[in-house]
Structure formats: structure tokens, C-alpha cells
């Protein structure tokens, strides 16, 4: 599998580390209910299909990327930098 | 209480690892030049600082800050892109680099790396073939033109690689590794280049 880093160009997946789903947003600390926090920490969707996920280009430019990948085929539809992902529609 | 020894002496990043010589059964396809005495600094700027840093470097060194994976050079300095908002300033003289950076206060997080990195120049007809044994980046002249840089890994070692010029034997690459990995990197380079013939020299161009 190759990931086209927006900064570096296409690179082998071994240059990257996988973090997981890009969707969960940390609830606001002290105001968050226990249930909301438990959801944030433990609950993950496991879709067969398109998935937006975080990858870290650790052996390259050290950027966090949001990769849209099909979990069935590993086909990558989009790779965004964090800045681009934040500027776009929220996940 | 015994006295703590104070016989520290400065030594180059490659000293004790590789010395000038020929490493080959036959041939001389790869030239390695161990670069000593370079002044190196890393610059990290926020998005707000970046335009100001660019203007400061432009007026001090006459080099414009690369915004993508490329390296720009003057006679005495090279500015290498090292990730978004990050650059390496490489000066021919180690003595002057602190002075070069003095005017950058407030424009970037500056850290001197002269003792932290090991640099070598790789050239020769078989330089690209040697790199191909460990580098996953396409170094074909069309894909990796003069002035392009890549942050990647070779033999699990993080390297900053740039094609600085074209010499009589083709592309000339500059390779920078963390100093603590210099021994491991040489071990890979020597094993990979041996079949083509490695000629190691030291010093400046």
C-alpha cells in the first residue's frame, strides 16, 4: 500500500504509523459526562468500506494526515493534511 | 574525590566509523565524500512567522524559503525543506552559522545541529544504483531533479536526501543522517556500494 503524502508525494506505507478513526472528537474535559468520555475512548465504528483515519508520516515529513481509505480494498480516495481536513467539512 | 577528566576533544561525525580509502574488490562506481565542518541549524516557523522568516533569509542570504520538498543553494549556504514549516540551514562554515541564525530570533525556533547530524556526498556512475538498494523514493532523474529533497528512511534510518547538482558522473546527492546513526548508515552504505567500488574521501568539495 502506498499513501500519497500531500507534502512528500507517494510513499510506502512503512513510512507511516496508523492511529485510527479520524472522527472522534474529545469531549470538553470537566464538563463531559462519563458516558460521553467512555464513548470517545472506547467506541469505534468498524465499517466495511470508506473510512477516514489518521496516519502519521513519521519516517518522512512528520505530518499528521487524514486518509480516506476503503477498508475492503485499501483503495485510497483522499489524503489531506490536518490543516486541509480542519478547513473542510468536519468529519 | 577523584577529578573528572576534562580531556574532551571535538571530533567529526564520521571519525572512528569510516576513514578515507577504497572499499572494493574492483571498480570505482561510487564516490563518497565525508563532509566535516559544516554548520547546520534547524528552523521551525509557525504559519504566521513563515513570511517574515522568508523575508529575513532572503535579505541575509539571498535564498528564498522553499515551500515544498526542494533545496536552494548559494555559494556558501543551502536551505533545505524539512517538512511543512521546517527547514535546515546548511552553511559551508561551521563558525558562521550561529551568526547567520542570530537575526532569526522571534521568526523561528532555531536549533544548532552542527554536532547532531552527519553528512556525506554521494556521487559516481553507480550512486543511484547503490541508493536504490535501500531508498524507496524514485530517484530517476525525471522524478527527482536537481534541487529536490526527500525525507525518507534507508535501512530504517531517517535520512534527509537532496540532489545538489549534476557532476561529470551524473547526479550528486547529499545525505544527512542523525549523528548517532552514522555508524549504522555507513554499515548499510558500505555493504550496498561495495560491489560497485566505493571510494571514500574527506573534506570539502
Report on the architecture of this protein:
The complex is a heterodimer of chains A (91) and B (205). By secondary structure, chain A is α+β, with helices and mostly antiparallel strands. Chain A has a single domain (2-87), classed as 2-Layer Sandwich (Folate-binding fold), CATH 3.30.2270.10. In chain A, 16% of the residues lie in helices and 36% in strands. Chain A is built from two helices and six strands. Chain A has helices at residues 34-42, 82-87, and strands at residues 2-5, 9-12, 17-21, 50-56, 64-70, 76-81. In chain A, a hairpin with a 7-residue loop joins strand 4 and strand 5 (64-70). Chain B has two domains: 21-36 and 116-202, Gyrase A, domain 2 (2-Layer Sandwich), CATH 3.30.1360.120; 39-112, Alpha-Beta Plaits (2-Layer Sandwich), CATH 3.30.70.1520. In chain B, 17% of the residues lie in helices and 35% in strands. Chain B has helices spanning 50-61, 97-102, 127-131, 182-193; strands spanning 21-23, 30-35, 39-44, 71-73, 77-81, 86-91, 109-112, 117-123, 149-154, 157-167, 170-178, 198-202. In chain B, strands 1-12-2-8-11-10-9 form a seven-stranded mixed β-sheet. In chain B, strands 4-5-6-3-7 form a five-stranded antiparallel β-sheet. The longest helix of chain B is centred in the first third of the chain and has 12 residues, at 50-61. Chain B starts with 20 loop residues before the first strand and ends with a strand. In chain B, 39% of the residues are buried. Classes of the chains: A alpha+beta (91), B alpha+beta (205). At the A-B interface, strand 2 of A face strand 9 of B.
Main sheet makeup of chain B: 7 strands, mixed
Number of strands of chain A: 6
CATH superfamily of the largest domain in chain B: Probable tRNA modification gtpase trme, domain 1
The portion of residues forming beta strands of chain B comes to: 25-35%
Largest pleated sheet of chain A:
4 strands, antiparallel
String of helices and strands of chain B? EEEHEEEHEEHEEEHE
Low-pLDDT segments of chain A = none
Q: How many strands of chain B?
A: 12
Please state roughly what percent of the residues of chain A sit in beta strands, choosing from under 5%, 5-15%, 15-25%, 25-35%, 35-45% or over 45%.
35-45%
Pattern of helices and strands of chain A: EEEHEEEH
Determine the mean pLDDT of chain A: 92
Tell me the Rg of chain B in angstroms. Answer: 18 Å
Amino acid at each position: 500500500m502506498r499513501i500519497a503524502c500531500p507534502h512528500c508525494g507517494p510513499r510506502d506505507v512503512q513510512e507511516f504509523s496508523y492511529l485510527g478513526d479520524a472522527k472522534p472528537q474529545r469531549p470538553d474535559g470537566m464538563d463531559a459526562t462519563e458516558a460521553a468520555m467512555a464513548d470517545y475512548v472506547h467506541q469505534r465504528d468498524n465499517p466495511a468500506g470508506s473510512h477516514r483515519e489518521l496516519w502519521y508520516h513519521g519516517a518522512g515529513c512528520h505530518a499528521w494526515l487524514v486518509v480516506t481509505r476503503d477498508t475492503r480494498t485499501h483503495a485510497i480516495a483522499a489524503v489531506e493534511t490536518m490543516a486541509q481536513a480542519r478547513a473542510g467539512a468536519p468529519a | 574525590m577523584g577529578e573528572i577528566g576534562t580531556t574532551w576533544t571535538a571530533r567529526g561525525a564520521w571519525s572512528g566509523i569510516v576513514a578515507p580509502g577504497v572499499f572494493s574488490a574492483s571498480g570505482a562506481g561510487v564516490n563518497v565524500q565525508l563532509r566535516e565542518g559544516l554548520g547546520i541549524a534547524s528552523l521551525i516557523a509557525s504559519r504566521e512567522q513563515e513570511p517574515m522568516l522568508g523575508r529575513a533569509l532572503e535579505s541575509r542570504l539571498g535564498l528564498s524559503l522553499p515551500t515544498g520538498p526542494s533545496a536552494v543553494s548559494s555559494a556558501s549556504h543551502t536551505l533545505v525543506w524539512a517538512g511543512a514549516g521546517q527547514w535546515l540551514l546548511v552553511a559551508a562554515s561551521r563558525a558562521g552559522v550561529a551568526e547567520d541564525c542570530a537575526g532569526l530570533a522571534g521568526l523561528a525556533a532555531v536549533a544548532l545541529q552542527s554536532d547532531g547530524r552527519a553528512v556525506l556526498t554521494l556521487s559516481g556512475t553507480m550512486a543511484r544504483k547503490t541508493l536504490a538498494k535501500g531508498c524507496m523514493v524514485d530517484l530517476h532523474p525525471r522524478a527527482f531533479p536537481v534541487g529536490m529533497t526527500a525525507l525518507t528512511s534507508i535501512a530504517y534510518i531517517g535520512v534527509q536526501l537532496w540532489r545538489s547538482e549534476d557532476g561529470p558522473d551524473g547526479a550528486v546527492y547529499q545525505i544527512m543522517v542523525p549523528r548517532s546513526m552514522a555508524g549504522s548508515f555507513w554499515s548499510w552504505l558500505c555493504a550496498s556500494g561495495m560491489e560497485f567500488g566505493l571510494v571514500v574521501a574527506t573534506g570539502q568539495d
